[in-house]
């Protein structure tokens, strides 16, 4: 005879199967039926929490996970999933704490181990994440996504051969895994003799109606043709790959221009006494302009650590302003910053970084978007340093258009169109010029990528002097730096300095003429730039 416990166990196994199949309504009904008969059933609450998180309601999911933990506080799987919801809510410190609790509970299933790894990865703790991904793969070697996650973490910590093998294994298990196929190509030099064109084109033909898959594959095909010296074909594939995703977005360039204007106004806020720490070094600017290169130069110094691309300053500011908008960076939040306690903001930022990154002493925060907060950073942390990377306008526009940004991150939606990217650059240029005129030169400086490439010794010394650091030869040998790199430049910065990215835009003429005309009209390029 089947006992009540056995019946509930079978019901919950069915609920888990339904949840995996995304039959949410049926899974929910089974869980509720079990809880009606057994209100203290932690597994039913656990499954309901996952269901709620998959619908994007992470606040409610955390409450449901807490119900499960109230019945069984040592559930590693529930702790891990709550940690994932907390990181989605930008509660990084709490998320890492719950992930550590989940790890301490010694989980033995692949999903929980992978979930812990995801939390550590999203918190920027890539070294910590790798072992959890490796154990997950060992337990479920036929799951493509586990291999992809492992590959990404290995890439970020510089184990490129192993990363490539992990991506290839994901593709072997699922030839339609566009992310893994693209990732493998991004870190593998393509040539006429050895390339992935056939696999990429076949996958694009199968998946072209899927906007995200087409985007990934279009970028991979573009990269392959670039490697083979075919920029015209590369540009064609970028246009094809981005087309469907661009159509699905409601991007208005005027929205970003309002953001630039609001950021400019913050440079006029009254000076106040902020938190006195001189530990942070902020490296900012548009993506793909040398921010990672400069970070590697400075983090090769014995007194400097890299904390990665942190969202802590934006999140602390958002919480203190309490603006109702769903974004951490918007004109409303920037305007509301005038009335906050600058000292409290600086202290909150420092506490947030130190508690999750376990960093003491000088550290680098390399979030490019922090450029919008430069005046507020120096208001809250007047002894901090803010470095803004600059690059030739045309190369900046092209490199951003060529970059495959995270599809769920709306701040880079300009990059689906070359003209929009040029308009964005013009707004960025206007904002940074305003900052340079109004912020203290001993705390805010511009660094030009081309000058670093042409004379790394002089530029490294200038950067170190600006940060109040003595020169160390290791800063010149930045490519020997073994610390993790969680950016698109993770492969490039592990090589000695090269010049092939200089004046790349000229190879793409006349395909980028319309973007160049925008830059000329906006005063970012001389009138004879196309001659």
What order do the strands of the largest sheet run in, or round the barrel if closed? 2-3-1-4-5
| Portion in beta strands | under 5%
Radius of gyration: 24 Å
- Number of distinct beta strands: 5
Write down the overall geometry. globular
CATH superfamily of the domain at 253-307 and 361-521: P-loop containing nucleotide triphosphate hydrolases
CATH architecture of the domain at 253-307 and 361-521: 3-Layer(aba) Sandwich
Find the CATH topology of the domain at 253-307 and 361-521.
Rossmann fold
Helix-strand sequence: HHHHHHHHHHHHHHHEHEHHHEHEHHEHHH
Notes on the protein architecture:
The protein has 25 helices and 5 strands. Strands 2-3-1-4-5 form a 5-stranded parallel sheet, with helices on both faces. The protein is mainly α and 531 residues long. Among the domains are: 175-248, no CATH class; 253-307 and 361-521, P-loop containing nucleotide triphosphate hydrolases (Rossmann fold), CATH 3.40.50. Helix 4 runs antiparallel to helix 5 and helix 8 runs antiparallel to helix 9. It holds the Pfam family TPR_1. GO terms for molecular function: protein-tyrosine sulfotransferase activity. TPR repeats lie at residues 42-75, 110-143, 144-177.
């Amino acid at each position: 005879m089947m006992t009540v416990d056995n019946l509930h166990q079978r019901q919950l196994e069915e609920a888990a199967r339904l949840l995996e199949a995304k039959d949410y309504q049926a899974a929910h009904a089974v869980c509720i039926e079990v809880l009606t008969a057994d209100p203290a059933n932690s597994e039913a609450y656990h499954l309901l929490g996952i269901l709620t998180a998959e619908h994007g309601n992470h606040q409610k999911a955390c409450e449901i996970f807490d119900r499960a933990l109230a019945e069984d506080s040592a559930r590693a799987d529930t702790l891990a999933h709550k940690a994932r919801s907390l990181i989605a809510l930008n509660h990084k410190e709490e998320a890492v704490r719950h992930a550590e609790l989940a790890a301490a509970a010694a989980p033995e299933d692949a999903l929980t181990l992978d979930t812990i790894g995801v939390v550590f990865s999203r918190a920027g703790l890539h070294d910590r994440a790798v072992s959890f991904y490796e154990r997950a793969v060992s337990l479920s070697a036929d799951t493509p996504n586990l291999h992809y996650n492992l590959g990404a973490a290995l890439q970020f910590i510089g184990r490129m051969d192993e990363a490539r093998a992990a991506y290839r294994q994901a593709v072997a298990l699922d030839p339609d895994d566009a992310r893994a196929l693209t990732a493998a190509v991004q870190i593998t030099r393509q040539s006429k003799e050895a390339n992935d064109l056939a696999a990429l084109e076949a996958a694009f033909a199968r998946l072209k109606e899927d906007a995200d898959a087409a985007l990934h594959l279009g970028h991979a095909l573009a990269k392959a043709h670039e490697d083979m010296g075919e920029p015209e074909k590369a540009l064609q594939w970028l246009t094809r790959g981005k087309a469907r995703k661009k159509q699905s977005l409601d991007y208005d360039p005027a929205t970003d221009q309002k953001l630039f204007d609001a950021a400019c106004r913050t440079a006029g806020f009254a000076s106040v006494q902020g938190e006195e720490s001189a530990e942070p070094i902020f490296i900012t600017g548009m993506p793909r302009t040398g921010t990672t290169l400069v970070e590697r130069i400075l983090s090769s110094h014995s007194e400097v650590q890299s904390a990665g691309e942190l969202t802590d300053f934006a999140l602390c500011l958002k919480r203190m302003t309490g603006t109702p908008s769903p974004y951490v960076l918007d004109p409303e939040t920037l305007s509301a910053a005038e009335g906050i306690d600058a000292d409290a903001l600086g202290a909150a930022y420092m506490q947030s970084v130190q508690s999750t990154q376990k960093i003491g002493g000088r550290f680098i925060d390399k979030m490019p978007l922090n450029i919008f907060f430069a005046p507020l950073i120096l208001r809250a942390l007047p002894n901090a340093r803010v470095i803004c990377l600059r690059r030739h306008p045309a190369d900046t526009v092209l490199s951003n258009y060529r970059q495959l940004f995270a599809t769920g991150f709306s701040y880079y939606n300009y990059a689906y169109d070359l003209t929009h990217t040029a308009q964005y650059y013009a707004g960025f240029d206007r904002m940074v010029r305003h900052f340079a005129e109004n912020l203290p030169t001993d705390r805010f400086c511009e660094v030009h990528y081309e000058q670093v490439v042409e004379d790394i010794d002089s530029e490294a010394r200038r950067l170190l002097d600006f940060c109040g650091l003595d020169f160390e030869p290791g800063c010149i040998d930045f490519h020997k730096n073994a610390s993790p790199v969680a950016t698109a430049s993770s492969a490039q910065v592990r090589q000695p300095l090269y010049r092939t990215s200089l004046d790349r835009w000229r190879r793409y003429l006349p395909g980028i003429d319309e973007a160049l005309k925008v830059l000329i009209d906006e005063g970012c390029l001389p009138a004879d730039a196309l001659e």
